[in-house]
Amino acid sequence: MTENTRIKVLFVDDELHNLEAFKATFRRDFDVFICLSVAEAMELLEKEDMHVILSDQRMPGTTGVEFFEQILSKYPDCIRILITGYADIGIVVDAVNKGKIYQYVQKPWDNNNLKDIILKAFEEYAIQKAKRQDLEDMKILAEQLEFLARQNTIS
Fold this sequence. Notes:
- With 155 residues, the chain is an alpha/beta fold.
- It has a single domain (8-128), classed as 3-Layer(aba) Sandwich (Rossmann fold), CATH 3.40.50.2300.
- It is built from 5 helices and 7 strands; from the N terminus they run βαβαβββαβαβα.
- It has helices at 16-26, 38-47, 64-72, 89-97, 111-154, and strands at 8-12, 31-35, 52-56, 58-59, 62-63, 79-84, 103-106.
- The strands form 2 sheets. A 5-stranded parallel beta sheet has the order 2-1-3-6-7, with helices on both faces. Strands 4-5 form a two-stranded antiparallel ribbon.
- The N and C termini lie far apart (43 Å).
């Protein structure tokens, strides 16, 4: 990640006023994308790489946890943050275990606190991305070493 990388943040919520408030608050700090549904978010994710994804828990047809479960294997590097207006320990446990969330935030959120959470989430994204790249590099090196070792045994 370069110093000039703008953090791409997606917020999924079925309440338009929440999306508009989020975008108005954070558009100067981040590249903000908003979606009114999980289906809309899935379409967007096919076209745009995101760093941080926030989702409301309670939406028509699906939950934030279910959405995070759906995207986990295809977009493992995205950092997931669950936002909800309902305090339910069962939801939090599901979010952590099934959706592999980074953070759980209660509505109404505090703007400064949420900004800090997003910034820290992006740091985590960069760390995960670097680790994944290091693993790929090590696999390539291991294959090259194995090839060289075979060459030495043949000659």
